[in-house]
Amino acid sequence: MKQFIKLSQISALTILVVGCKDQSRTKTMDFGLFTLEAPYKWHQVKQNGIDSYVGAIAVDNTDTLYFDLGMYSNTLTEPNIQAITRQMIEENNLDSSDFIVVKDIMSMNIDADLYRKQNVTWDTIDNRRAKIVFPRISGKGTTGVYIGSLWGDSSKVRFNLCGADLKKQTEEDLLKAIKTLRFHKNNLDNEEN
Q1: Domain match, 149 and 67 both
Q2: Are residues 131 and 183 in the same domain?
Q3: DSSP-assigned states of every residue in 122-148
């Protein structure tokens, strides 16, 4: 009887371990013009673009990633930060959340990089120069990649894949997935039809 109970416990444990989905498991997501290795739970969402190939990746109920492959893809460059005085805000009825507020005009010569939301690094992905951005404070800012010349010719086809204000785990997963991007120009004609 003890052997039967022990065997039953081992069987139940085996079923439990095998039956549970491995959270670290990945899959290849194929978007025709590019592929990437991504967490198993990510799902492609088709979208219609006017002048580019666009789409989305549903990560979960709160995080979604977006991509744009075309001539007008966003460079993921953070806007310049402007410094103004409290007096300027009051006189012009401005929203202070768009500015760095300083004490007086003499204090306006500041290093704007101290106040940026995201970091920028450069890397090579699939033999292409890639700008990678990620927030300085996790969950506040853009995480993604921008490639300014996808096919290396004069067409200036660009690419970006990004998400905003992502959960920390999604940020980490996206930065890992970005490194696995592979582009397939031979599929270009199929996407245009």
Answers
A1: yes
A2: yes
A3: EEEETTEEEEEEEESBTTBSEEEEEES
Q: Locate tokens 């940026």: which residue? A: 116
Domain that holds residue 31: 24-78+116-192
pLDDT computed for residue 175 by the predictor = 98
Within-domain flag for 12: no
Q: How far apart are CA 143 and CA 163, in angstroms?
A: 6
Q: How many domains would you assign to the chain? A: 2
Cα–chain center distance at 168:
12
CA–CA distance, 98 with 152 (Å, rounded to integer): 37
**pLDDT for res 103:** 72
Q: Which amino acid is at 106?
A: M
Question: Average pLDDT of each block of 10 consecutive residues along the chain (193 residues)?
Answer: 51 45 81 96 93 95 96 90 80 78 69 83 95 95 94 81 97 98 74 45
Cα 142 from Cα 117, distance rounded (Å)? 8
Q: What is the pLDDT of residue 89?
A: 79
Which pTM value belongs to this model? Answer: 0.77
Residue 127 and residue 55 share a domain: yes
Residues 95 and 122 in one domain: no
